[in-house]
Amino acid sequence: MARVRQAGRPTREQAAQRHLELLDRALEVFLDNGFERATIEAIATAAGMAKRTIYSLYPDKSALFEAAVQRAVDRWLVPIETLRAAETDDLEETLLAIGRIRLAGITSPAGIALQRILNAEGNRFPQLFRLVYEQGTLPAMTFIAEVLTRHAEAGAIEIDDPEVAGTAFLSMVVGGPATGALWGVAWTPDDLDKRMRAFVRLFLDGVRPRRP
């Protein structure tokens, strides 16, 4: 006879979902109060969870904070397969698609929250910048460098260092609008599209072969 589940005991899936909810509520408390003023008690109240349950998962507030930021990174990340699926033979359209995907991720609620927490607590937790760079920025830059290399080998563009060129592309096409979104600047979709097309064409003008 199958063993009857203990009454009130959550399933593994329910426990995992509650854990994610804890991390989401914890990030909100950290954002609202800052790391120093945020308390486990406040987080427990926001999550509807007992303090002892939180301490059974994380030994201290720092460990919970880092896990909450990792959760924000996981929600913000764009799978590299999504970028690869956007590649076509047309370099301009490929770069536009990559720019749109990256910008949508960075300006999403999870992306904005991540930028805010890094700006506020990055000095206290400098390893978080490395985490975001290695998990999010570096894979995207590597893929963009691969795209640029393929088109350089075909003679469509001339670049000495694909990684440097890819970094410049991201800064031009995504960096400005992302910073504006963090500061509360609201562009219409048409305005954003015009800006992105202008930046992509400006970038391409800089890497296309020069006519003698």
TrEMBL record:
Q: Which UniProt keywords apply?
A: DNA-binding
Identify the PROSITE patterns for this entry.
Answer: HTH_TETR_2
Does the keyword DNA-binding feature in the UniProt annotation? yes
Q: Does the keyword DNA-binding apply?
A: yes
The entry's DNA-binding region feature spans: 39-58
One Pfam family hit: TetR_C_7
Q: What domain of life does the native source organism fall in?
A: Bacteria
Q: Which residues form the HTH tetR-type domain?
A: 16-76
Q: What is this protein called?
A: TetR/AcrR family transcriptional regulator
